[in-house]
Amino acid sequence: MLFDLELISVGKTYPDGTVAVSDFDLKVEKGEFVAFLGPSGCGKSTTLRMIAGFEDITNGEILIKGANVSHVPPEHRPTSMIFQNYALFPHMTVRQNIAFGLDVKRMDRVEKNRKVDRILDMFDLTEFADRTADRLSGGQRQRIALARGLVVEPEILLLDEPLGALDANLRRIIQNELKLLQRDLGITFVFVTHAQSEALGLSDRVVVMSNGVVEQISAPEELYNRPATPFVAEFIGSNTIIEGKPAQSGDDGLQRIETPYGLISGVGKAGSDKAVIPAEAFNLGLRDTPNEIRLDGVVTAKQLVGSIGYIRVKLGDGREVEVETHAGSAEAQNLLPGSSVTLGVDPASVTLIHH
Fold this sequence. Notes:
Blueprint: E1 5-13, E2 19-28, E3 33-37, H1 44-52, E4 59-64, E5 67-68, E6 79-82, H2 94-104, H3 109-122, H4 138-151, E7 156-160, H5 168-185, E8 188-193, H6 196-202, E9 205-210, E10 213-218, H7 220-225, H8 230-235, E11 239-243, E12 245-247, E13 255-259, E14 262-268, E15 274-278, E16 282-283, E17 293-305, E18 308-315, E19 320-326, H9 330-334, E20 340-345, E21 351-353
Parallel strand pairs: 3-8, 3-9, 6-7, 7-8, 14-21
Antiparallel strand pairs: 1-2, 1-4, 4-5, 9-10, 11-15, 12-13, 13-14, 15-21, 16-20, 17-18, 17-20, 18-19
């Protein structure tokens, strides 16, 4: 199968010996929306820059539609990159900014104008075509940056935290537009972000990175519900991680570990020694499900925010766990700090991992 983008053991080591990215493997199909997610300094932007050609690779290969572009200059790669600061020319008009990439390609003037007019219309920018970029809002500048990246008709659009400078409301609006645009055009998007909600909400697959290493590559739902490593379990969502020792599996298809809170069953591989319990998997009471996990404790804090109730519970050994529940439930309404509570957990919602 021919992939739009393939990274084969791609790595980047700086002259002082610092490893920025280590043996990155990835295969991206045509039209996929892939997000690179991780904390600052994890190597996600460096990887994006290597794909674009702005950063040399130390080892490995980068293939685009089967062609090795590992040492091809950026301007000769079928990619287009959008930066967080948009990198617009402030005193050029909107039309001139969008046409810049076509000018570099020395495109015929009639063809260039046709392409620019079409994309101005697509992004609702026609009325601003003759204004300079420094006279427009953040949302308008973001649209110009997207239009400039897409007008050259790249095989792959690379986006390096392009929404980071927008306020929360505008960010949500542009997120929706971005996903619809990507679906309509069918272009492969590779998107770098440090915002979990952005990665989980926009992408078809998420690559989680830590210290230059890929921790997990999964669809958003799987990533959230079935973390593969302790780092992902701590980084994504709000999870309680309980350590234990591997125990004999049962005949229900679940694995088990022995913990200070008793035997805990969950979905995972044999030899696992950690149980990952999402905050929303805790029930404020037992449900009598098979092998239900039971944890007794005392409520230490409660906060109701909109439809979600956030409750902290201190277990018998002094450990506190986070519980998320529906704010309108009777349990959430009636529990107060100091109340005794029994938390029930369905083993099917627990993921067992190895450290």
